[in-house]
Structure formats: C-alpha cells, structure tokens
C-alpha cells in the first residue's frame, strides 16, 4: 500500500473484535514505526511505550477511569485486543512538547497499522484518567517519572473495512 492510500483509508474504529488477535509480527512492526517518529531534539529517552494485550489490565483501567470520572463503567478501548500506551517523562525540554512528540509516535503507528490491514484509533481521554492513577501506572510497568499521554488501540473491526476517503484540503489553509 502506498503512504497516501493508507492515509486515505485510515479511520477511527470503535467496534473492535475482542476475540481476533493481532499477530506479534504486526504489533512489533507498529511499535517500530512509532519509534521512527520525529521527536523534539531527538530526546527519545523522554518517551516510553507500553504494549498491553491483557484484557484483565484493560478492564481494570476501564474501572479505574470510570470511577475517577464519576461515570458508569464502559470500555474506553472499544474491545481492542492491543493498546499501545505512550508515556512521557515529566522532565521535558519545552512545555507541551510531550503532546507533540506523542502525537507523532501515534500517527506513525496508526498509518503502519492501516498499511498492515489492521484497524485502529487514537485514544486520549481515558489515558488522561489513567495518568492520575500512580498505582495502575506502576502495575503496567510505566517507569517512575513518566505519565501516560495518549494511546493507540489496534485490532480488527467488527463492521468491516474502511473505504478510502478523498484526500482533499479540509482544514483552513493559506499560501504566502
């Protein structure tokens, strides 16, 4: 698949088949793609990836986040069999750069997953709830001094394949 074709096909999936696994080879390729993302000042040590295939851990995160947000328990991961959390060191070279760096890593992973025929979604809200739970972060093996920023959920959609979108200019743009 060509890069622009993968970009045109990629869509956010909210109906993963929890019983259909993603191969280790594809997960490794997605992680490697994320590791090739541009990082401010090339400070790669400022980010950490946690690959979670444990439904038990994901369910525990769901319960924890729902309780912290005073809402009914739900599946914030949409049944995805794999969730890759991106955490950032609390020591950053510039305010907010951890969000930009994390977004670059996740975008690379989502495009790579799409290229491999794997559906995906960028996650932020529930991850912000998780970042406040130090015990859960420790249980997940997130290094001391790091906080989860965002995540990529990958798997196979119950509703089928995405159709390519027209690659058009849909944001406000000016040329000078």
Task: From the structure above, extract its key features.
single chain; globular
Structural summary, described in words:
Helix 3 crosses helix 5. With about 180 residues, the chain is of the alpha+beta class. The protein has a 4-stranded antiparallel sheet with strand order 1-2-4-3, sandwiched between helices. It starts with a helix and ends in a 21-residue tail after the last strand.
Topology:
Blueprint lengths: L2 H7 L14 H12 L11 E6 L2 H14 L13 E8 L7 H19 L3 E5 L1 H7 L2 H6 L6 E10 L21
Antiparallel strand pairs: 1-2, 2-4, 3-4
Helix pairs in contact: 1-4, 2-4, 3-5
SSE pattern:
HHEHEHEHHE
Measured between the Cα atoms of the first and last residue, the distance is 33 Å
Rg calc: 16 Å
On the 0 to 100 scale, the average pLDDT is 93
Shape: globular
| Content-based structural category | alpha+beta
Oligomer: single chain
Q: Largest beta sheet: what is the strand line-up?
A: 1-2-4-3
What's the number of extended β-strand segments? Answer: 4
Report low-confidence residues grouped into runs of 5 or more.
none
Largest sheet: 4 strands, antiparallel
Portion of residues in beta strands equals: 15-25%
- Number of helices, where a helix is a run of at least 4 consecutive DSSP H or I residues: 6
Task: Provide a brief overview of the structure.
This protein has 176 residues and is α+β, with helices and mostly antiparallel strands.
């Amino acid at each position: 698949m060509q890069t622009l074709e993968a970009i045109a096909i990629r869509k956010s999936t909210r109906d993963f088949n929890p019983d259909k696994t993603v191969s280790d080879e594809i997960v490794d390729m997605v992680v490697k793609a994320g590791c090739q993302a541009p990082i401010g000042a090339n400070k790669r040590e400022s980010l950490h990836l946690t690959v979670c295939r444990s439904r038990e851990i994901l369910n525990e995160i769901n319960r924890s986040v729902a309780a912290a947000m005073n809402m009914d328990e739900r599946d914030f991961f949409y049944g995805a069999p794999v969730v890759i959390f991106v955490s950032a060191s609390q020591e950053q070279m510039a305010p907010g750069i951890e969000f930009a760096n994390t977004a670059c890593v996740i975008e690379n992973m989502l495009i790579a997953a799409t290229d491999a025929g794997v559906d995906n979604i960028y996650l932020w809200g529930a991850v912000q709830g998780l970042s406040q739970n130090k015990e859960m972060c420790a249980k997940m093996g997130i290094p001391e001094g790091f906080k989860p920023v965002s995540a990529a959920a990958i798997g196979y959609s119950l509703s089928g394949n995405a159709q390519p979108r027209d690659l058009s200019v849909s944001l406000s743009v000016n040329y000078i």
